[in-house]
Structures are given as structure tokens and as C-alpha cells.
């Protein structure tokens, strides 16, 4: 009887101890600060675009990053460190950004990353902070005015981007057939367009804006809404909850709306 009582009170004490120290019965910490490692490091690491005007662009003169998504990154740094400058930017492409967050080389990605059901199986996405659409950049000399004119034409798209599926679906709906050529980077796509290896350069309109010049035009056609979310590692649900809480708050209090207006997006 007495041993049972001792055992019970011992167990109770043990449970209280676990609760106080935040260690669960499985031995795992339950109240880990999702920002602990970042705070200890002293800098937030974020993957951004370096070639998307208005969103993420590296100023060739100063080397500094500028744009709407850069400002969101600085908001996170200001929130975590009370200092908007404590952020280190890594330039990413559609192809490199996923692996960079998987390996932990960056804490998050804020880089025109479209939220899709398929991608949600691999990454945590926040609520969208902006929604773009897929567009088409053509040479003025090509005489193409819309997707309808592109039957049999070659469409250049970036690897790992949503563009190919989006434009292929739109083409099928219009009863036309397209050929596709895939490239790793947008500068390669622009070079292919200029040398007429492709007839159309297709990706989100925001990205096309960075490659528009006197010889080219962005067609009025647009397809497939592209909602952009802040991306973090799938397994780090506590950190994802933090990013979601912040983006939702900045949407609700007008911070993000003001930035969209400031950058004329
Ligand atoms: N936003 C599109 C995507 O996530 C285009 C690719 C890109 O962002 O570079 O697939």
C-alpha cells in the first residue's frame, strides 16, 4: 500500500517536472522557441529573387537588394531582432530555392514562390501575400498578339516553374498545340527569345517585367493566378506557424497593402 503511494507521488512529481521543463514523456522538448537558433546565430537567412523588378532585385550599382519581397524580409528581421538590417539574402531561382530551404541554408524563401497543392506536400507556405498571373513575352517583330496566334510555336519556360502546366492548359482550352523548351534561368530564356530559338518567353508577369525591352512586348493575355507565399521547411511546423502569424497580421493591418502600393505592383 505504502509503496504504491510512494510510487504514485513519485510519478506525479516526475510529471510535474516534465511539464515545468517542457520535456514530454517521449523525451522531446515541447516548448522549443522556433526562433531560438536564428536568434543565437544573430542573422535571419532568406532566399530572394535578384532579377525581379519591384519584388526582389539586386541593384547592380550598390549590390543591395530592393523590392516588395525584400521589405517583407526586413519586417521579419525587425520582428525577430528589433533590427531590420539583420538579414542575409541569398539569390535564388525557381530551381534552386526548394533545395536551399530543405538543407537549412536559408530559413525561409520570399521569392515569387507560387502556392500549389503539390508543393504544399513538400514545403510550408503562408497565406498568399500577393497574387500574380502567368504571361507571355514576345518579340515585337514576331507579330504575335495573343495565345491564339501561337499554334505550333515554341514556348520557353523555366525548369521547376508552374508556367508550362499553366500555359499548356490554356492552350488546350483554346484548341491549339504548343511546343516547349525548358531553361534553368530567365536570362537564358531571354537570350533564347532574342535569338529566336523560342517564340514566346512565358512566366509570371512580374518576372517578365525584368526582361522587357524596346524590342519586346508583354501580351495582354494572362493565365492561372499565381498566389505567392512565404516558404519554410516542411518539418519545422513551429517556425511555419510564426511566419503565418506575421504574414496574416501584416495583411490585416495594411502593412503589406502599403508596400504593394509603394512598389506600384
Ligand atoms: N512563380 C512561379 C513558380 O513558383 C514562377 C517561377 C518563379 O517564381 O521563378 O513556379
Describe the structure.
The chain has helices spanning 2-21, 36-41, 68-81, 97-102, 117-120, 163-173, 186-194, 205-208, 237-252, 255-262; strands spanning 44-48, 51-52, 56-58, 65-66, 87-91, 108-110, 123-125, 130-139, 154-158, 179-183, 200-204, 216-218, 223-228, 231-233. The model is unreliable at 14-30 (pLDDT under 50). The protein is elongated and about 55 Å long. Strand 9 (154-158), helix 6 and strand 10 (179-183) form a beta-alpha-beta unit. The strands form four sheets. Strands 8, 9, 10, 11, 12 and 13 form a six-stranded mixed β-sheet that branches. It is of the alpha/beta class. Glutamic acid binds next to strand 11.
Furnish the topology, listing elements before pairings.
Blueprint: H1 2-21, H2 36-41, E1 44-48, E2 51-52, E3 56-58, E4 65-66, H3 68-81, E5 87-91, H4 97-102, E6 108-110, H5 117-120, E7 123-125, E8 130-139, E9 154-158, H6 163-173, E10 179-183, H7 186-194, E11 200-204, H8 205-208, E12 216-218, E13 223-228, E14 231-233, H9 237-252, H10 255-262
Parallel strand pairs: 1-5, 1-6, 9-10, 9-11
Antiparallel strand pairs: 2-3, 3-4, 7-14, 8-11, 8-12, 8-13
The structure holds glutamic acid.
Residues 94, 112-114, 158, 161-163, 203-204, 207, 226 line the site of glutamic acid (GLU).
Average pLDDT figure: 91
Classify the helix fraction into a percent range: 25-40%
Structural class, from helix and strand content? Answer: alpha/beta
Fraction in beta strands: 15-25%
> Count the strands?
14
Helix count equals 10
Give the overall shape.
elongated
Cα gyration radius (Å): 24 Å
Bound compounds, each kind once, are: glutamic acid
- Largest β-sheet summary: 6 strands, mixed
Low-confidence stretches: 14-30
Taken in chain order, the helices and strands follow as: HHEEEEHEHEHEEEHEHEHEEEHH
Distance between the termini: 74 Å
